[in-house]
Design a protein that fits this description.
The protein has helices spanning 3-8, 22-29, 33-41; strands at 12-20, 45-51, 54-60, 65-70, 76-79, 85-93, 96-103, 108-115, 120-127, 130-140. The chain is of the alpha+beta class. The model has no long low-confidence stretch (mean pLDDT 93).
């Protein structure tokens, strides 16, 4: 699959399958204990779409729906589910979506997404020494 096709393959609707080390990652990015407990129980659905170069990542859970919109390689702002304000940028490199975010204190975190050979979305979340992994299966293409 060509690089652009791999980015295009991220578009669609994805359901959570499995993951590991989320508690460590959430703690490292500054999410409190109650927030981590709630987050660990969630099985989010991701909806990724693009219109005229503007991408949307919508995360749906039983408690709430959050969205970010961005143009690749341009800074965007978001407020997380737990109220943290972030600035971020998404770059598409070598068939992967690389999202780098900074909070108001300068703490950096990175989320890398790609679609593997089994048509599952692999997500690596990193901050400091914490590294989490999540897997989502495609429900349908967007």
């Amino acid at each position: 699959m060509a690089v652009n096709e791999r980015i295009e393959a991220l578009k669609g609707i994805w359901d959570y399958v499995n993951g590991d080390s989320m508690d460590e990652y959430l703690k490292e990015i500054g999410v409190g204990m109650m927030g981590r407990m709630v987050a660990k129980s969630m099985k989010p659905r991701l909806i990724i779409s693009e219109t005229n170069g503007k991408w949307t990542l919508r995360t749906e859970t039983s408690l709430r729906t959050m969205s970010i919109e961005f143009v690749p390689n341009e800074e965007y702002e978001e407020t997380t589910a737990d109220g943290r304000e972030l600035k971020g940028i998404v770059r598409f490199e070598n068939g992967k979506w690389i999202q780098t975010m900074h909070d108001k204190n300068g703490k950096e975190s990175m989320v890398t997404r790609w679609v593997d050979d089994q048509d599952q979305q692999q997500i690596i979340l990193e901050c400091g020494k914490a590294k989490a992994h999540r897997i989502h299966k495609r429900v349908r293409e967007e």
